[in-house]
TrEMBL record:
Localization (cell): Secreted, Extracellular space, Apoplast
Protein name in the entry: Uncharacterized protein
Protein family: Belongs to the peptidase S8 family.
Domain Inhibitor I9: 32-116
Any one of the GO CC terms: apoplast
Catalytic residues identified in the record: D151, H229, S566
Keyword Signal: yes
All copies of domain Peptidase S8/S53, residue ranges: 143-625
Length: 782
């Protein structure tokens, strides 16, 4: 009740502020989120929730002019379980007045965030040569782990959500299965135990975006997925095993999730257009109230935020962490450029994407008999027995079109009469045009097929449906163009895609995967971990209304092949769920640490992990390395990042004690010396130092504390792998865990007088004869 009295005080004080109201030139109301920090209790139910909602309404009424009351006196969402606040229509001036009050943490625009859009689990386990161990662990696996998927909803008929053999729903589950015109209560079962949706019709009119018919459906009253993103991610994280799964014969095998026995709760907060901040926060609040154990979020901002207080995912994840619920998030698809990683708060498990040991290739056969293999997922019906005219885009340009535009197959650049019935070659000199746009341009010309010459994403196969499409690199592309120029009648054909099994090397950092360092806090290493995200087979919705998506005579596939960090995130969610099922008492940070310190840094050829260029991958690209779920079940030692660590992080980052106390609902006091350099000292499973000066006369020292979760009476010895010139020392060099001792601390010092300028990468590993506990570090030497 104390929090409600504070809210009433807030209403009074804001009413007083309004007497000093400042005129503004922008009086157009827009959607805003008002974030008010943590609740005083996580048991707010029934009458207390109603009182809180009434108080929010009074607050809204106090700031909205009387002439606008009828139109704008309503809440889009209100939050009252894990955190306080609401979303509503406000003018810029009204938002400014609210943000200036000491009892409100932040007020920010209700912006639109974007979706980060079988064999993978077998690859993760087989390549670690510990598959036999899984049979032992599966005897102890619990089916009570509940995964909350915040995404585009779910297609309940997908076979991945079969509940055969799964026991009764855990009694602690408080969630619901909301019905809709196309979603029945019976669509939920012992596997899919919950389904909610959050209508966001304002995204169309207020955010100025035009919805497609399918996107419009996602904003209607139903948890059903009309995008396929949510269905794909949910089946990857915890899907029921489905034998003989494939995408029209490709990627055949058993499709399953990381923890097939896990329960799934779907929270539809997104459409094809994106996800509103207010809906994401409501989904977080509901998921925590419902009782989920892990939350998976394959979503992120498509711009850089100035701080964590304006980030709905960071806010929701902070309160989830405080309640013992892990949040795994995709890192974004803006690679291969540095400083592009998203979802970088330390309490978020940030995931990069990698390939697996399977590739998809299509053969180009030229009229002169030469063949080239390129990357593709096409269901072409072309054959070797017939070839078609082959042309370069610039040679079928529409009138008055610049050569460069036609070569790149930009919209409006090609002449349909010239391109029809031919295979068109397009290049990639214009990075602003995606390959899907170029493919649509060529397809609209009624061309037979398309050859795309580009180094970008050439190892990430593009699904072109039944349209013959193949991508080759510049070396092969130059030979194809030379052939076109060397004959009067160039011809070619594009054959259907074939699967290349046991592909090497794998894993490799995906071209598109966003890279660190993190812009907001470089003293926290991001991404944290890497997981499969290239050409992943998982459940989908039936694509019956998309021309060219289903081969003639075939039924819509129940599975699809997708790429993105959206696909890598649920792999980590599934792995974390497996660990949670075996170690139910472990905190989110212990699970996170276990996956990071046991991650592998070698591919299936036994060599260090690489990126698409073939060069070695570094921690800004792959985090601690590729997840190894079964190894993580017994990590030996873990780094526990506590609530105090996260609050100190906020102090070091520069937030006021007032805001931190509101966010945490504590009387926490910041250390007297709170500077950003000290962020490196929070007890994280990796180490990042943003500024190590060569001129420092003394080494920079970082402290870490480890918890023994293995056998007692264990002794660990440290081994450092550091680049030439960077002096790294550990003290003590030996950690001895006697009976009754579970926690020990150590210091790591870094001295960079002789080190190379820029980023220096290395690792520190603790060995006890059975366990290898590896901590990666990155040090920027100035």
């Amino acid at each position: 009740m104390a929090s409600l009295l504070q809210l009433l005080h807030l209403i009074f004080s804001i009413s007083f502020l309004l007497t000093c109201r400042i005129a503004t030139s922008n009086r157009t109301p827009k959607p805003y989120v008002v974030y008010m920090g943590s609740t005083s209790s996580s048991n707010n139910e029934g009458s207390e929730v109603q009182v809180a909602e009434s108080a929010y309404m009074q607050l809204l009424s106090s700031i909205i002019p009387s002439e606008d009351q009828n139109e704008r006196r309503s809440l889009t969402h209100h939050y009252d379980y894990a955190f306080k606040g609401f979303s509503a229509m406000l003018t810029e001036n009204e938002a400014s007045i609210l943000s200036g009050h000491p009892d409100i943490v932040s007020v920010f625009p209700d912006s639109v965030l974007q979706l980060h859009t079988t064999r993978s689990w077998d690859f993760l386990e087989t390549e670690r040569r510990i598959l036999r161990a899984s049979a032992t662990y599966n005897k102890h696996v619990s089916s009570d782990v509940i995964i909350g998927m915040i995404d585009t909803g779910i297609w309940p008929e997908c076979p991945s959500f079969n509940d055969k053999g799964i026991g009764e729903i855990p009694s602690r589950w408080k969630g619901v299965c909301i019905e809709g015109p196309d979603f029945k209560l019976s669509n939920c079962n012992r596997k899919l135990i919950g389904a909610r949706y959050y209508p966001t019709p304002e995204m169309n009119s207020i955010h100025g975006s035009k919805m497609s018919p399918a996107a419009g459906k996602t904003s209607s009253g139903s948890p059903r997925d009309y995008v396929d993103h949510g269905t794909h991610t949910a089946s990857t994280a915890g899907g029921f095993p489905v034998v003989n799964a494939s995408y029209y014969g490709l990627a055949g095998g058993t499709a399953r999730g990381g923890l097939p026995s896990a329960r799934i709760a779907s929270y539809k907060a997104c459409s094809k257009v994106g996800c509103s901040s207010s809906s994401l926060l409501k989904a977080f609040d509901d998921a925590l109230k419902d009782g989920v154990d892990i939350i998976s979020v394959s979503i992120g901002v498509n711009f850089f935020l100035s701080n964590y207080k304006n980030d709905p995912i960071a806010i929701g994840a902070f309160h989830a962490e405080n309640m013992g619920v892990m949040v795994a998030c995709s890192g974004g698809n803006d690679g291969p450029f540095p400083d592009t990683i998203k979802n970088t708060a330390p309490w978020i498990f940030t995931v990069a994407a990698s390939s697996i040991d399977r590739d998809f290739r299509s053969t180009i056969q030229l009229g002169n008999g030469k063949t080239f293999r390129g990357s593709a997922i096409n269901l072409s019906n072309l054959t070797k027995t017939r070839t078609y005219p082959l042309v370069f885009g610039k040679d079928v340009a529409s009138n008055f079109t610049p050569t460069n535009e036609a070569s790149n197959c930009r919209p409006g650049s090609l002449d349909p009469e010239k391109a029809a019935g031919k295979i068109v070659v397009c290049v990639d000199n214009d990075p602003t045009m995606s390959r899907i746009i170029k493919k649509l341009v060529v397809e609209d010309m009624e061309a037979i097929g398309m050859i795309f010459i580009s180094e970008a994403e050439k190892d990430v196969p593009f699904d072109s449906g039944t349209f013959p499409f193949v991508q080759v690199g510049s070396v092969e592309g130059l030979q194809i163009l030379h052939y076109i120029n060397s004959t009067k009648d160039p011809r070619a054909t594009i054959l259907p895609t074939v699967e290349i099994p046991r592909y090497k090397p794998a894993p490799v950092v995906a071209y598109f995967s966003s890279r660190g360092p993190a812009r907001l806090a470089e003293n926290i290493l991001k991404p944290d971990i890497m997981a499969p995200g290239v050409a992943i087979l998982a459940g989908t919705i039936p694509h019956t209304d998309e021309p060219g998506s289903v081969p003639v005579g075939k039924k819509p596939s129940q599975f699809a092949i997708r790429s993105g960090t959206s696909m890598s995130c649920p792999h980590v969610t599934g792995a974390a769920s497996l660990i949670k099922s075996v170690h139910p008492g472990w905190s989110p940070s212990m699970i996170k640490s276990a996956l990071m310190t046991t991650a592998t840094v070698h591919d299936n050829m036994g060599k260090p992990l690489t990126k698409g260029s073939g060069n070695p991958a570094n921690p800004h690209e792959m985090g601690a390395g590729e997840i190894s779920p079964l190894k993580a079940l017994h990590p030996g030692l873990v780094f526990e990042t506590t609530a105090t660590d996260y609050l100190r992080f906020l102090c070091y980052y520069g937030y006021s004690e007032r805001d931190i106390r509101s966010i945490s609902n504590t009387n926490f006091s910041c250390p007297s010396n709170s500077i950003k350099d000290l962020i490196s000292d929070i007890n994280y499973p990796s180490i990042s130092i943003a500024n190590l000066s060569r001129n420092q006369t003394a080494a920079k020292t970082i402290q870490r504390t480890v918890t023994n979760v293995g056998l007692s009476n264990a002794t660990y010895i440290a081994k450092v792998y550091a680049p030439v010139g960077l002096v790294v020392d550990v003290f003590p060099h030996k950690l001895v865990f006697l009976k009754g001792v579970t926690k020990l601390s150590y210091n790591v010092s870094f001295f960079g007088k002789e080190a190379s300028s820029g980023y220096n990468f290395g690792s520190l590993t603790w060995f006890d004869g059975r366990h290898s506990v590896r901590t990666v570090f990155t040090v920027k030497v100035q």
